Predict the structure of Cytochrome c oxidase subunit 9, mitochondrial.
Amino acid sequence: MAIAPITGMLRKRFWLDISCALGLGTASGYAYWYGSHLKSLERQENYYIKLERERAAASS
């Protein structure tokens, strides 16, 4: 008993696979950017502002 070959799977699900991949990739990118990256950037900027204020207070 032979098993029928699987044909046309890529063609049939191609657009679904591409749209899911792009959608999930975009959602993951936004989640990283707004959930992690901007928070760490804000922490870094606050640290440098604090150092600048301390240096300005020490020099005056």
Notes: Residues 31-60 form one domain. The chain has a mean pLDDT of 90.
